[in-house]
Write a structure and sequence with these properties.
The complex is a heterodimer of chains A (298) and B (122). Chain A folds into 2 domains: 135 residues, no CATH class; 148 residues. Chain A has 11 helices and no strands. The termini of chain B are far apart. Chain B has one domain: Sandwich (Immunoglobulin-like), CATH 2.60.40.1220. Chain B has 1 helix and 8 strands, in the order H-E-E-E-E-E-E-E-E. Chain B is mostly beta strands and 122 residues long. The chains are: A mainly alpha (298), B mainly beta (122).
Chain lengths: 298, 122
């Protein structure tokens, strides 16, 4: 019997993991991009334009990935075939309940985020709508899994994801700013400012994520080694540790060196930021695998 | 930076949303029992095949296969969320090895799958 196993890694499950990871990545970049614009209103015009384009791209990629995930869920529930992906009953089941709530909240939230990209009048309304979009997308994440229906766990997840989204979306603008010529005061100021943000962001990210992980493991550290969920979570935690190491290297070594105009510092900083992006992509992939293929201890 | 009115709107929206989406806590479902037991060797054909969970789950597939291939069932467990799902074979099962393969979705949105086997002796 394979009672508590959620799913084997057949092609349909692999597809669901990839599309869920795609949604996670796109939604976090869209939410984080808007948060970054709020936090850094003095971003150079050229960077603002690139960031707005990337938010728009992330919004529609996120919606596309969610719709693909919906089809793949129906296909999986029907035994793993494309005919099931077109079965109205199975599409209804996959679009109902927890999965359906996530789909609806995320799509509405992502659409609302676009208010942040508009220019001109009604600025408070645009800000209000885009902030509501942020709230809806983050709440969408809490609709599936153990956080569903538990405001405390859902709140922890929202805090964790807010910090993660901000960090993830900051990487591209920081990468571009780090490539500007040495002595560019505005770039140096923004890089240093992000470093200060990191001092508040990282502890919140870790505390919220740590509390969630401890609860899902039933407070047993040994579950990290002896349960499939714990083993996959261990991989995620290792990747997070590497990410923190890179973040600390940037904050206390590479950014100050780049601001001073030290030789090769900008190149190293850009390489380090690119490595952070790669690690984040892997973390998102593992997180999608955690939700799709394994079950927490409880 | 966000305006003060924007921040207030955001906080109000967040509080309202938490209120709207606060629902009963849905635990993840696990299999607690099957009928026949997994690996059971039976002297008589079972009248029904059953899956039991510790929380409601919606079964979307319940396939039974035996020595003659796919087994037809007169009652199908595919339906609304429940902790207990049963299928009744259309005809008395012949001797041989059988496998039940199922898929479903728990109320917390997790998709699940599993299988169990039993044997009917000659």
């Amino acid at each position: 019997m394979n009672g508590i196993a959620l799913a084997g890694l057949d092609p349909w499950t692999a597809g669901r993991v990839l599309s869920l990871a795609g949604f996670y990545g796109a939604a976090l970049l869209a939410v984080g991009g808007v948060l970054f614009r709020f936090a850094f209103p003095s971003l150079p015009q050229r960077e603002t334009t690139v960031l707005k384009r990337s938010i728009l791209l992330a919004v529609w990629a996120g919606i596309g990935m969610l719709l693909l995930l919906w089809l793949l869920q129906a296909a999986y529930l029907g035994g793993g075939n494309w005919a099931a992906a077109r079965n109205p009953l199975l599409l209804g089941i996959a679009g109902d309940g927890a999965q359906g709530d996530r789909l609806r909240l995320a799509v509405v939230g992502l659409l609302l985020l676009q208010a942040n990209l508009m220019e001109g009048r009604f600025r408070p309304l645009r800000h209000g709508l885009s902030m509501m979009g942020i709230g809806l997308v983050l709440l969408a994440f809490a609709q599936v899994g153990h956080t569903r229906g538990d405001p405390r766990l859902g709140g922890l997840l929202v805090v964790h994801l807010t910090m993660a989204a901000f960090w993830a979306a900051a990487l591209m603008p920081l990468y571009r700013l780090a490539g500007r010529r040495p002595g560019d005061d505005s770039s140096s100021r923004l890089l240093a400012q992000f470093g200060r943000f990191g001092l508040a962001l990282v502890p919140l990210l870790l505390i919220a994520g740590g509390c969630l992980a401890a609860w899902l493991l039933g407070g047993r550290l040994s579950a990290l080694l002896y349960t499939p969920y714990g083993q996959l979570l261990s991989i995620k935690l290792t990747l997070v540790a590497l990410l923190l190491l890179l973040g600390a290297t940037n904050r206390w070594w590479l950014v100050p060196a780049a601001v001073r105009g030290a030789p090769n510092a900008s190149r190293r900083l850009r390489g380090s930021i690119a490595a952070e992006g790669l690690l984040m992509a892997l973390i998102i992939l593992v997180a999608a695998g955690l939700l799709t293929t394994t079950s927490p201890v409880g | 930076m966000a305006t003060r009115s924007g921040k207030r709107t955001f906080m109000a929206a967040l509080v309202a949303l938490f209120g709207l989406v606060s629902q009963p806590l849905w635990a993840h479902a696990h299999v607690t029992d099957t009928h026949p037991d997994d690996g059971a060797v039976l002297e008589q054909a079972p009248a029904r095949l059953e899956l039991q969970f510790d929380a409601p789950i919606r079964i979307t597939r319940f396939d039974v296969s035996g020595p003659q291939g796919a087994v037809e069932t007169s009652e199908d467990p595919v339906g609304p969320p429940s902790e207990r799902h049963a299928a009744v074979p259309a005809d008395t099962l012949e001797a041989g090895e059988y496998q039940v393969v199922w898929r479903g979705i728990a109320e917390d949105g997790h998709t699940m799958s599993g299988d169990y086997r039993f044997t009917i002796q000659e």
